[in-house]
Predict the structure.
Amino acid sequence: MPRQRLISWFFYLNLALIAALLGYKAYLNFFEQDFASAHAAQVNAIESMLTERDTYRFAVLGNINNSVGIFERKIIPRLNREGYDFIISAGNAVASGGEDKYRALFGTLSYLEMPYLLTFGPHEESRLGGFRFYDHFGPYHFSFAAGKSRFTFLDSTGTTDFGWQIRWLDEVLAAKREPNQFLFSAHPLYPVDHAGLFGLDDDHDYHLENPARQGLTRQIEQADVDAVFSSQVPLFDRQQHGGTTYITTGGAGGLVLNDDESYHHFVSVSVDGDDIQISERRLDIGQHPIWRTLESLWFFIYSLFYVGYLNFILIVSTFIAIALWLYKRIFTEQDYYPDFDIDPDAGGDMPLHVAMFTNNYLPFIGGVPISVERLKRGLTELRNSVLVVAPGYPHQPPNEEADVLRLASLLPMGRHKEFRLANIFSWRLVKRVRAFAPQVIHVHHPFWIGRAGQLLGRLLRVPVVYTYHTRLEHYAHYVPLPGPLFRNLISHALVKRFANGCDAVIVPTSSAEEYMRIIGVKQPIFVQPTGIEYARFATADSAAIDTLRQRYRLEGKRVLVSISRLSKEKNIDFMLDGLALLRDSSEHDFHLLLLGEGHDHERLQARIEALGLSKHITLVGAVPPDEVACYCHLAELFVFASRSETQGMVVLEAMAAGLPVVVIRSSGIEDIVQHGVNGYKTAPDPQAWCERIDTLLSDDKLKTRMSEQASRCAAEHCIEKFATAVLRVYRYVIEARRKRHAD
């Protein structure tokens, strides 16, 4: 069967279910009979029936438990055929005290052709059922005389204080006007032999405990009560105490074991004057497990409509939501190919107003701030107007207010307070961005300032573009949540939800695009590597290089360089382990200059000293962007161990300086490093990583060839090409939005 036809059937079935639910709710509320104080009418009927009669029969049943398969369909027809005058439930007539269960029981009892009475038991009392029992049937404990018999009902649940009940019962039994006395208590007043019954142990409260039991039994036996009937236990038990017969009956429909001890049954009581005959009526009946399951399902469905209108609204709303989803899947034409009618070159000569939102920016040094600054510069050189919305810093560049909106810092974070939680709730933000009148908003983070940019895009009705810079799952250690929860669930859900709320997504590499599609991003995705300042990195001042060589005493050393923030996600400990192996296995006298700062600086320095690498590694700290190229030209190789990059812009910058690279395979890195061409990619194995470094240091011809290839690769990622490509994405989303509104 075609998938579309199957979905169509489900859609129409869902509509039918919605109609059925609405109809059933209307039936329950407007057509089903309501009932209140049912016991009053039943007692009147029994009193009228037994007037002037000395002979009658009644049946006692325990643990009916809303059983449709046993009680309603098998026991009731038998009681009607055998001509009992009335029946009495000894307790637990409902599965629980919910409104749905009481209404279902009332419907079941309507099939009886005789009056009935219920004993208040623990099932009737559960789930606040006492209030419903009182409304629908009457008091929890009561007594009445009919003919020459008295029927007394106790509340064995303790809802009514036992001290009060004992006092009340003493007054009821003291008169002794009626020769026949019958009493009903859901809990047995004496322990019952229940050996072998699963789920009942000696500590179970299936029978009434002292001192209430002693007080009640003393009164009952002193008053010569003929019989006391109880339920609770799924078996038949008969005991004699002080001239009173105590009957436990629990087989009227609830769960029984269907063995020699626990089986379906009821109790037949025949009264002829003063002669009372009590007999057990065993029923050779059962219920197939399938029917029992269907019965449970029916009561579950039935109950949903009696909990309240809120549940009903939720159920119908769920079905409507499913119906709408199915309708969209069935009747909405799906085109999974790009819309080639959208011309991204439309209006190519017109400059744009672009507002960029970023959680960090210069003077903070990092991949995202540098990327944003380069894109801003490239767009400006192409005659576009750019407004950057970013946090404020203590030493931010002067004279930038024309194109940068600094938001006041609410909370500085990090060891060096390098991260700033900006005040996105400022009215100045809305006012400035509205006055700038952006034609497109470009956000660089999926939360906080990035989220504010997305919301402003909706407010101003302009398209929003999101650049995926950061693998959030590698930053779980910064988040005050359980690491696995954020790493494996929240981070991916956050990126997916945010990206799908934008008009387009820019990713720096094909592997990042694949990640986006895997987590469920539906919006257009454009692969566009971040631009680098190729010309600045391709050349360097030889005098400045000599100065650095003297500063770090690198004469005769094989110099390596790496650029990284000093934090856990950058995997620097791996690099230290690899260099320790290189020191022990290689003849080369190497020295690594590690550029960058971060909260792990002190810990990493201590570990360098512990590994005995102080003569081989220098933590340079933060370096001004204009000086980074000199450090690269000072070195022979660029080494890198981070696995949290989306592109690895510092790797491209090192290539622009003509450095072969040795890296670990990971997303972002995988797309720009060609193994054996412009560098080496290894598994996360320190031994393999250090061997590749040693190979390049030992083979000058190989190193020279890879240096040339690295430079050519980096030349393809200049800022001019980057800005032009991003500008084309802007024009695409602007035209796509215009086309949607026109349609």
